[in-house]
């Protein structure tokens, strides 16, 4: 899987690159408009992370030219502009998703994988890990082919963990993922502990061959032994 | 009050004043004129009578009431003291109860050594009749004037003010976020042309300010969000390195928590300034009932965790014309507040009717401080990690759409009452 990251802030670019490489992706980078448009003209990517405000031009122009050549559906806009206009413009130009800075690396990984999954969707709509299969569209989980009943938040958590297999997910990233945007009181980690505790119990009793490991004081990690 | 009616009001009052001053004046002028001419003819009559009497021998020695004069002999002293005097008087003709108004000249003359008093009179206008006539004439004049003014107002003023109303319509349709200038108006009137010019300058200025403020908000977001992103993501990568000891990992995790708080503060402040700058301009019909149900179902599992019972009472539909994003933030902030700042096993009541939304919840620490409740960074006794901007955002949204929000405390419950006023459809 080849991913192009277009971002002008070198530190952020580096962090994104490192994180994506941990997921075994081939990551290429561009830090300004002309470098990006050059790379986009020559190569084809499975996923493109695109910042809107770039030195030398607007990311939206790049997106427009991608749409022109019918290659815009695997673009995730990563922008500090939380402005609705940009969001709408970007999505109208065919971008698949819009992620507002600052974001958690786990969230970025999840979004990238979601785009890739949609792109390769050749009949397979489940995410498989060990003896677990999670059906995204149907919002169903099966362990050894037997349905496992999860509530909404538990499903969201498991999905998030499966997209970030073997990666540390911080409590903050989990809380933000569960509560979505515009959260004011997401400091309520007790609820997250409680949900994860329930999820663990349910997975255990269904004999799922995976483990949600607590990293004390930091977060959680999904391990497939 | 409309301009037309206002001008009619002022004109009718001032005309009424002018007419009421003018009518008595007019009455006295007319009366004076009549008396003048009557007096002249009485003097003529007097001269004729005296000449006639003096030429008729011996006839002046008798008292006479003949035609329209009256002669009476008087003594010398009185006669010499007498001057020509005009007087208004009334006479009752024989067999008539109604007095007839008369103008009378009293004078004296001398024949040889005898003195006579002469009274010459002539009928004059009835004063009452004159007053009544003038009064009615003035009333009619007033009515006719008012009717003419209304007619002129309707035709001329409407025509004169047409460019003004056109301009007014353009103002109403003006949207600061759209890059369109005011359309031209067809007029030669200097005042309106100047008004249009002034409005053009003002709208252009307002638009510049609006745009630069919008730009600033966005730039501020960009400038702050990117470093925050770098911070978060770098620490996340460090945390993933296995060789970290427990204490360092915990400290780093706490740092992420602080950055998270900063990020939320930044986001909320930007949101607040965007609402206050009226940058959420696209509006649509939002079904608050549907929205409330969605938000509640999203928070259900958390409420269940805290053993909080949510009671929803919906009577009638509440469809409000507002921005979808803001509507979402508006309801979810209220509901989240009610759930998060609640006791274990507490209650939340949500009442939605056509005009009102009431969100109530069990209080943890008693009544909230009413004076600073909606101020920025108000935290009450709540968790210290909240930004204290949630209710300010709700208030700003209410202000933006003309809703009124009120807080009261009753039966150990916080009540937030939002009246949509006339924004519901």
Textual characterization of the structure:
The complex is a heterodimer of chains A (225) and B (425). Chain A is of the alpha/beta class and 225 residues long. Chain A is built from 8 helices and 14 strands. Chain A has 2 domains: 2-120, 3-Layer(aba) Sandwich (Rossmann fold), CATH 3.40.50; 153-223, Arc Repressor Mutant, subunit A (Orthogonal Bundle), CATH 1.10.10.10. Chain A has a 5-stranded parallel β-sheet, with helices on both faces. In chain A, strands 8-9-10-11 form a 4-stranded antiparallel β-sheet, covered by helices on one side. Chain A has a 3-stranded antiparallel β-sheet with strand order 12-14-13. In chain A, α6 (152-163) packs across α8. The model of chain A has no long low-confidence stretch (mean pLDDT 85). Chain B folds into 3 domains: 3-129, no CATH class; 190-276; 284-419, Heat Shock Protein 90, CATH 3.30.565. Chain B is 55% helix and 19% strand. Chain B contains 8 helices and 12 strands. Chain B has a 5-stranded antiparallel β-sheet. In chain B, strands 7-9-10-12-11 form a 5-stranded mixed β-sheet, with helices on one face. In chain B, a hairpin with a 2-residue loop joins β11 (404-410) and β12 (413-419). In chain B, α4 (190-240) runs antiparallel to α5, α5 runs parallel beside α8 and α6 runs parallel beside α7. Chain B is rod-shaped and about 160 Å long. In chain B, 21% of the residues are buried. At the A-B interface, α1, α7 and α8 of A face α4, α5, α6 and α7 of B.
What are its keywords?
heterodimer; A: alpha/beta; Arc Repressor Mutant, subunit A; 2 domains; 43% helix; elongated; B: 425 residues; Heat Shock Protein 90; 3 domains; 5-stranded antiparallel beta sheet; 8 helices; 55% helix; rod-shaped
Layout of secondary structure:
The complex is a heterodimer of chains A (225) and B (425).
Chain A: E1 2-6, H1 10-22, E2 26-30, H2 33-42, E3 47-50, E4 53-54, E5 57-58, H3 59-68, E6 75-79, H4 84-92, E7 97-100, H5 105-120, E8 126-129, E9 132-135, E10 140-143, E11 146-148, H6 152-163, E12 168-170, H7 171-179, H8 189-205, E13 211-215, E14 219-223
Parallel strand pairs in A: 1-2, 1-3, 3-6, 6-7
Antiparallel strand pairs in A: 4-5, 8-9, 9-10, 10-11, 12-14, 13-14
Helix pairs in contact in A: 6-8
Chain B: H1 3-55, E1 64-66, E2 69-74, H2 76-81, E3 85-91, E4 100-111, E5 114-123, H3 127-173, H4 190-240, H5 246-276, E6 284-287, H6 288-305, E7 309-315, E8 319-322, H7 324-340, E9 347-353, E10 356-362, H8 390-401, E11 404-410, E12 413-419
Parallel strand pairs in B: 7-9
Antiparallel strand pairs in B: 1-2, 2-5, 3-4, 4-5, 6-8, 9-10, 10-12, 11-12
């Amino acid at each position: 899987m080849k991913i192009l990251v277009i971002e002008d802030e070198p530190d952020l670019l580096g962090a994104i690159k490192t994180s994506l490489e941990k997921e075994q992706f081939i990551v290429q980078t561009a830090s300004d408009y002309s470098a990006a448009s050059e790379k986009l003209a020559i190569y084809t990517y499975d996923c493109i992370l695109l910042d809107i405000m770039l030195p030398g031009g607007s990311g939206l122009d790049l997106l427009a030219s991608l749409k022109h050549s019918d290659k815009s559906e695997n673009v995730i806009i990563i922008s500090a502009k939380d402005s609705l206009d940009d969001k709408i413009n970007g999505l109208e130009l065919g971008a698949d998703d819009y992620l507002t800075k600052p974001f958690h690396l786990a969230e970025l990984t999840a979004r990238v994988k979601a785009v890739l999954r949609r792109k390769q969707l050749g009949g397979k709509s489940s995410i498989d890990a060990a003896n677990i299969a999670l059906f995204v569209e149907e919002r169903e989980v099966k362990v050894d082919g037997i349905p496992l009943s999860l509530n909404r938040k538990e499903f969201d958590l498991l999905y998030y963990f499966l997209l970030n297999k073997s990666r540390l997910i911080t409590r903050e990233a989990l809380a933000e993922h569960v509560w979505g945007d515009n959260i004011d009181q997401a400091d309520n980690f007790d609820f997250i502990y409680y949900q994860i505790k329930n999820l663990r119990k349910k997975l255990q009793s269904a004999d799922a061959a995976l483990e949600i490991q607590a990293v004390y004081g930091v977060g959680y990690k999904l391990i497939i032994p | 009050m409309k301009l037309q009616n206002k001008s009619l009001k002022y004109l009718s009052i001032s005309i009424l004043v002018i007419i009421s001053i003018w009518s008595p004046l007019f009455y006295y002028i007319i009366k004076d004129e009549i008396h003048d001419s009557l007096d002249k003819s009485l003097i003529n009559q007097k001269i004729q009578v005296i000449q006639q009497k003096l030429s008729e021998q011996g006839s002046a020695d008798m008292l006479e009431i003949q035609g329209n004069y009256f002669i009476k002999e008087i003594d010398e002293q009185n006669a010499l003291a007498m001057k020509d005097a005009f007087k208004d008087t009334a006479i009752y003709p024989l067999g008539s109860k109604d007095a007839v108004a008369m103008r009378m000249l009293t004078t004296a003359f001398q024949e040889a050594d005898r003195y006579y008093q002469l009274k010459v009179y002539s009928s004059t206008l009835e004063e009452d009749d004159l007053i009544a006539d003038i009064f009615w004439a003035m009333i009619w004049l007033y009515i006719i004037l008012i009717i003419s003014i209304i007619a002129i107002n309707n035709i001329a003023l409407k025509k004169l003010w047409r460019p003004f109303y056109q301009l007014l319509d353009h103002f109403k349709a003006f949207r600061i976020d759209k890059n369109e200038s005011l359309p031209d108006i067809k007029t030669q009137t200097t005042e309106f042309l100047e008004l249009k010019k002034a409005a053009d300058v003002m709208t252009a200025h307002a638009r510049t300010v609006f745009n630069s403020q919008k730009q600033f908000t966005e730039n501020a977001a960009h400038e702050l969000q990117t470093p925050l992103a770098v911070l978060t993501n770098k620490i996340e990568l460090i945390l993933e390195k296995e060789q970290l000891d427990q204490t360092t990992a915990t400290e780093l995790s706490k740092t992420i928590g602080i950055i998270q708080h900063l990020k939320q503060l930044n986001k909320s402040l930007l949101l607040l300034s965007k609402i206050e700058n009226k940058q959420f301009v696209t509006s649509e019909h939002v079904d608050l009932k549907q929205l409330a149900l969605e938000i509640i179902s999203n928070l259900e599992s958390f409420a269940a965790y805290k053993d909080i019972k949510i009671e929803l009472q919906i009577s009638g539909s509440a469809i409000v014309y507002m921005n979808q994003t803001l509507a979402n933030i508006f309801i979810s902030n209220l509901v989240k507040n009610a759930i998060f700042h609640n006791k274990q096993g507490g209650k939340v009541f949500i009442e939605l009717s056509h005009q009102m939304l009431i969100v109530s919840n069990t209080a943890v620490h008693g009544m909230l401080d009413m004076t600073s409740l909606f101020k920025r960074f108000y935290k009450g006794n709540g968790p210290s990690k909240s930004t204290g901007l949630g209710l300010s955002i709700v208030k700003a949204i209410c202000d933006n759409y003309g809703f009124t929000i009120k807080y009261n405390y009753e039966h150990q419950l916080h009540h937030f009452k939002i009246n949509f006023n006339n924004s519901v459809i």
